[in-house]
Structure prediction request, 982 residues.
Amino acid sequence: MDQNARADMIAGLLVCGAGIVIAVYAYANYPMGSLRRMGPGMFPMGSGSILALLGLVLAINSWRSLRAETGRDWPTVQFELRTAFLSVVGVVAFALLLRPLGLIPAVLAVVGISALSDGKNTPLGIGVLALFLAALATIIFKFGLGMSFPLFAWNWS
Amino acid sequence: MKHNLIALAGAAFIAVGGSAFAQSYPGGNIEYVVPFPPGGGTDVLARQLNDQIARQTGWNFVILNQPGAGGTIGMDQLSRAEADGLTIGMAQTSNLAVNPAMNPEVQFDPLTDFTPIALVNTQPMGIITNSDSPHADFAAVLDAVRAEPGSILYGTPGNGTVSHMAIERLMVQGDLEFEHVPYTGIAQAISDVMGGVVDIYVGSLPSVMQHVEAGNVRLLAVTSAQPHPLVPDVPTVASLGFEGYQAEDWKAVVGPAGMPEDAVAALNAAINEALADADLRAALEAQGSVVLGGTAEEFSAFLAEEVAAWAEVVSSAGLR
Amino acid sequence: MTFADNIVLGLETALSLNNLMWCFVGVFMGTLLGVIPGIGVLAAISMLFPLTFQLEPTAALIMLAGIWYGTTYGGSTASILLNVPGTPSSAITALDGYPMAQQGRAGVALLMTTLASFFGGSVGIILLMGFSGTISQMALQFSSTEYFALMLLGLIAASGMTSGAMIKGLIMVCLGVLFGLVGSDIYSGARRFTFGLVELADGIALVALALGLFGVSEVIASVGKISAKGVDPASVSFKAMKPTRDDVRRSWFPMLRGSAVGSFFGTLPGTGPSIAAFMSYALERRVAKEPERFGKGAIEGIMGPESANNAADQTAFIPTLALGIPGSATMALMLGALMIHGIAPGPQLMTEQPALFWGLVMSFWIGNLLLLVLNIPLIGLWVRLLTVPYQWLFPAVLMFVCIGTYSVNNSGFDVLLVAFFGVLGYVLRSLSFPAAPMLLGFVLGPLMEEHFRRAMLLGRGDPMTFLHRPISATVLLITLVLLIWGIYSAVSKRSASRSQRSEPR
Prediction:
């Protein structure tokens, strides 16, 4: 894999910041307790501090290799924003639609939305795929395993 | 007004013969919320009870296991379900009486957000110790903790369980100081009692009985008000100078607030009829339960007492 | 009764037509459900639990047990083929199994994991048959002090388990620990990092973290990049399943070591197959002559963990059956099944219900054999799955991930967590942070906290308690040696490379 010193330095600083925030939050909100009866804050504060330290080490290491090899062309980190966004929206839609609307609408949502992220899928193909998978899920989970969610519902809690 | 008349008529029907009414209720599947995972004590009890009711009435129950947060997630969901009598669930001491007093984020009120239907059974906690323990009986344990407060470590299956609350109640009532060692369930706790690392362990009677019978541990006391029929010779905590002391894990059927009275009456009648069945009764008693039953009103009054009593323990012990 | 009588009695029970049928139903359903991402053993058993009401207790237990070890067989399938773990304990299998599939060796990987599973399972069963009493007495010697020492050893041993920068692995372990700490504190009941959400009171579900981190992020990274997961039809054929001589030669010792590691962790309540798989992988990487092959399709990296998690599956029955102490939620469910039928599980089970006990144990053999016979022909079918165009396959994967996660706790919130960890996992993998150490930290972190704090309570505040107890002192000593050795070899490697660089070539 490509190691990207610039991205690593930023990641290290972010991790370090997160560690500090967690340690401070734990210290401020949860009792530390004594050595015999430790409070709920001890481990989160400890782990947060270690995380901050590790982040700092990563940042410093990357900074040093950045300085050592100036002028090198670092590969840029690429994110598949469209795919990530559509996949996640699909999963979230499933989570929000299963209760109240039932299994089939939720499956249609996750399949329909996430399938859009691949340019090779046509609208017709997506429709067929979504209906096929909804039927498959119904057969496996509802009839096969007798799971307790309705296929269609209105306001099912 | 009209509503009341119908209810009265319904009550009259029941008085004549419960089964006549059963034909109009439920008119569909009854969704049954079990706020714990399948296979646990509550789930097993719910399934045994529902099977018997189904045999008697032909009603169809659909069990929905909704575990989480000590059984309060399922209860919260039940409290917000439609109160048409087709969604009910099984509650118990910890999620209906203890947790609402202990945890600020519990949204429901145990007294106003539910319709009590019927008590089902109750199980006391058993207090056990290593078979080679220096403490001959529970009185000796009490002496030790009086002589040196905090010297006795007691294990429980978790924070906020009836086991934990049982000792908290004892500490409040007797002004004693035990040291709590919570475990996550019974497995390691029993292993630690057998290994002698923890002084005593408090767990539901059925969960500790098999280890008592195998001779690995000794049963020192039970937490019910009366001696338990399975172990009549084992003293109650109350009999050791703690008048009125009791800590039991009861289970009961409840629905969302505002359930139609006829549905409550039909369900209560069906539950009592099921609990009268000799086989089910024998099965429950063999597991260490005392079968309860009774009217919805009795349960309602009992629940109010329990909620008040545990809220008192929680606030005196400073657990909130 | 003698040992031989018991075995005969067990075989008679297990081979009765009725029990044999339920054993088959169990392992068949287990394999199929194990293949589906997210449907772990607990969910599978919970779903099929009500069915066992109608069965007599021996048949019920045989079926439930079949589901239990069947899911572990099936769990590796999705890991190897799609890099989406079927069960959390098979996430480790993906580390080297998926690269093998990418090299067109999916059939070999699947066949070899099936054999490793069978091997590990068999070792576990032999231990269960012969040494239940001894082993369960040994398990009683383990209290929180020993557990903490073991977890620490595991964490140190596994810290360098993935290739790439060590520091990134450590950061991921630490992040995993922190995610593991979310939820109610066992000791005080305090809600940590729950931000008022009651759904987080029990912590983050393992399945949500594992599927988000490995499953969803894999989908995001793969969409549009590949058309059909890059397999040529030739690799689907039966011939392509045949392992090379080199594969076989490399597999023996990992299987033996994996079985030993798995059997050990299986007997300890609260640990189980996931930790066993991690430890085995870490061990293989440590003893390997060329550790750099790991993560690129080293067969040792699948054989060790797969025999470990199956051995752990079987030995997990030792404390459950011999002591009545259920080591995991799944084992508690098994005991629940017994209780429904009015059988008190516990120390007397073996003497009071010999037909049930030995019938169950013998059914494990038969079940494992059935799984072997069942899985080998299925491999061809599973590999064929890879010829489905990826643009159709990935929405199906996401759907199964969603339903599987939901089914564990009937919780829509857990599905939202999958989305969260999917994004997080994708960002982290784009920055080449390895995901497996995070899972390790997530599993081990909370256990380490639990046991450390309990050990301090039981030791009444004296940290020397860790050195006073012989087992924990020994384990801590091993840990120290390992740590010093690790630092020493890292330093000497660095100075070696430095002196190499400075020397004129």
Remarks:
- The longest strand of chain B covers residues 114-130.
- Residues 1-22 of chain B have pLDDT under 50 and may be disordered.
- Chain B has two domains: 2-122+249-316, 124-240.
- Residues 124-240 of chain B form a domain with the D-Maltodextrin-Binding Protein; domain 2 fold (CATH 3.40.190.10).
